[in-house]
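FAQ: What does a ligand-bound record look like?

Like this one, built around pyridoxal-5'-phosphate:
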Amino acid sequence: MTETKNWQAQTRMVHEGQNRSAHGETAEALYLTSGYVYDSAEQAEARFKEEEDGYIYSRFGNPTVRAFEERMMALEGAQDARATATGMAAVTACMMSQLQTGDHIVAARALFGSCRYVVETLMPRFGVACTLVDGRDLEAWQAALRPETKLLFLETPSNPVLEIIDVQAVADIAHNHGARLIVDNVFATPILQKPMALGADITIYSATKHIDGQGRCLGGIILGDGDYIKNELANFIRQTGPSLAPFNAWVMLKALETLHMRVDRHCDNAEKLAEMLVAHDKIERVYYPGHKSHPQYDLAQKQMTRGSNLIAFDMKGGKTAAFKLANRLEIAHISNNLGDAKTLITHPATTTHAKLSDAAKAELAIRDGTLRLSVGLEDSADLLNDFEHALAELG
Ligand SMILES: Cc1ncc(COP(=O)(O)O)c(C=O)c1O
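The answer part, i.e. the structure of the complex:
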């Protein structure tokens, strides 16, 4: 591991975790190996007895994966981390590694669909009860606590209409109860919001999104204090195998070198587009945490450095107008992914949140005319033109 001294985050994102081989390569080496050989049978025995440091098998440790984990630890200010094959593997492993039958989770109801499935459907099958609350309502978090509550779980900004939850206040509620708070920080990115600095115990990412940022690889990561990672999570990952592939880790590791610049550019473009959408007469309402019109703008300002690249908006004219706009845009592509260099737009009611009941959609303000936009890295004037033309053509 590189000695990082007092370097700033951007410098650390270029150097942290590099473990040069004897060849002295400039770029980080890709250790594309599933296993490792030992100098002797005695050495193998010592590794398995944990008397000697060193790699044993890539399901539970690989130098390239470790380099990615160390770079992410530096960015997040976390003591330790474990990378996983996907964001959902991170969410599931994080919960399964610390819960048992009889425990209880309180989660914000505005969650990515698969996260909601894990807490609402999967965990109860193993005797872990779950209560969903409106995450913006601090009294609801408090009221949902039970003696057996072990975990509080939220994402902020939330998918798809970008509700903001007060991380510090929910962390206090969790800690006063002896529970832990997990924050899925995907929408905010590790650049714009630091959940652990706000009091969260564990931060989770789908690295598939902005961390890769170019739509290539799936990946995830769980960051937290050394005790939890070493004593609870590491063995769970070792035994059950949701591990990140070395190749994907290498792509993510290299992508961290440009994450600051990319997120800044994403936000520049999103701010301009949000401003234009707010003023447009074919748009009913816009949700963008970085715009003054957002109902929780002050809270967003308090815990995020910028508004992110996600914008949601409701079209006047409902589903017909929303579909027409999505179909007419030329630069923005229709895709349910997000955090990509390419601008992507999706209609949550018929894609990412299609499985929710009408009542659940209404609770989350997912309307027929709602579109969610992940603003990319294109030229901002081209993007504005694309939206202006497509909106004008709606008639
Ligand atoms: C907020 C959030 N959490 C978790 C995930 C899951 O990540 P992955 O697709 O890498 O499994 C996603 C994916 O869209 C997401 O948006």
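Follow-up question: can I read anything off the structure? Yes, for example: The domain at 9-258 is CATH 3.40.640.10 (Aspartate Aminotransferase; domain 2).
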